[in-house]
Amino acid sequence: MDKFKIVKYPPAKSKVYLRKSLIYYIKSYFTSKHLTEFENYFTEKEIIMANSWVNLLSVYLSVIKKTKRNCDEVIIPNHSCFEFTKSVLIAGLKPIYIDLNSNLDLNLEQLNLKISNKTLAIIGVSNVGVEIDFQKLKNVADLNNIFLIEDATYTFLGTNHLNKRFGNLGNIAVLNFSEGKLIPVGGGALVINKNLSKSIGQIKSLISPQNKRDDIIDFVNVLIYKIGSSKIGYSLYNYLRYFSKVDLKRSFSMEPTRKENFLNNNIKLKTLSRFKLSIILAILKSFSKDLEDRYLKFCYIKENLNRKYNLYNYSRKQIVLKCPILISKKSNLDFSKLKSFGVTTLYSDSSPLFTDDSIFSVSSSLYQEIYTIPIHENIGYNQLDRIIKILNEA
Question: Average of pLDDT values for 192-215?
Answer without folding.
Answer: 88
